[in-house]
Fold these 2 entries.
Entry 1:
Amino acid sequence: DAGVIQSPRHEVTEMGQEVTLRCKPISGHDYLFWYRQTMMRGLELLIYFNNNVPIDDSGMPEDRFSAKMPNASFSTLKIQPSEPRDSAVYFCASSLRRYEQYFGPGTRLTVT
Amino acid sequence: EDQVTQSPEALRLQEGESSSLNCSYTVSGLRGLFWYRQDPGKGPEFLFTLYSAGEEKEKERLKATLTKKESFLHITAPKPEDSATYLCAVLITDSWGKLQFGAGTQVVVTP
């Protein structure tokens, strides 16, 4: 299996622009998670899905962030408009039932 | 409030010098405790899951143990390739699969 796939790996954008991060989970996994990692706050859960349905989005910072999972093999995390404080590494992870989560390589986002 | 605390924040070891990392937790109900390894520029890599006090898991030079209030990750005779940040995370009873991560311990093993 290829593992969790994320794209792009790096994204540099200007403040105010829309950013879309993409994730392909491991085939057969029914949970998908979006995390953000910074030096100051560590690894934070933003939102997670079970069978393509959002279960808990309490970690989403504000309305500028949105996530979708249109099918079992694809999810997006969108930031509109982006701000410099959104700069971080964003990880996608997937799991089978509620067991161990497998992480993707991450997307390093820089907002100038 | 549920909390996960890892210590020390950083650890520098000589090759072959065994040591232990600590993960203490105060949660309402533990369903599982997970250990991950993270290399610079990469996503966390799953190592172990522990479900009940007294349980132990081993993988090469790593051994994880669990009590009712904390978990230890023992590194026996480490090698430079064991250098990484080690993260622990807890899955609590009512969390529906939501992991709460500690801040991690950065381990550096020198030859």
Note: Chain A is about 0% helix and 55% strand.
Entry 2:
Amino acid sequence: AQSVTQLGSHVSVSEGALVLLRCNYSSSVPPYLFWYVQYPNQGLQLLLKYTTGATLVKGINGFEAEFKKSETSFHLTKPSAHMSDAAEYFCAVIFGNEKLTFGTGTRLTIIP
Amino acid sequence: GAGVSQSPRYKVAKRGQDVALRCDPISGHVSLFWYQQALGQGPEFLTYFQNEAQLDKSGLPSDRFFAERPEGSVSTLKIQRTQQEDSAVYLCASSLDRDQPQHFGDGTRLSIL
């Protein structure tokens, strides 16, 4: 079955520290991969996407993610956390059709 | 406007009432999607339109849920005889085409009493 797994429903990091949010998927077809961020009472904003080409993808707000086919992973990173990064982050995948399948989300807290 | 617009932002209804949620996609976007987001969960797919054609409604949880996009632009999600389990945030997204990134509205938070 095709699925998206986000390890860690809550992640806390200190301001200035590395942010690492994990995403794994299971699929028999090459997927399209996305990371979205959601601030309270708002919709989802696209951070970055991977469709084809370079496996290291850079997005907005200093985030990047690397597609590793052998590990079926698409982890999100940022070298130095900022207070404004506190939000809910969702990994999402398109498995050969047009609809997004989302993970359950990771709430990122930044410790001053 | 420049983004996807949804109305109302908040809707409170009594169990058994019918509700209608509106989505105005980004101008020129061919594809339109509805998702349901329960509290503390990721969004789940409900239905998908390509222009006015509803190509996938596999995510609609019951026949009480109905969506339309008659002129290929504005879409309405209707829920009949609402139940408490329908309480959720309903998100609309649009994209230039099926494989392009989806842009989300701020959602409608539906509470069924």
Note: Chain B touches chain A at residues 4, 6, 31, 33, 35, 40-45, 48, 56, 59, 91, 93, 98-99, 101-107, 109 (CB under 8 Å).
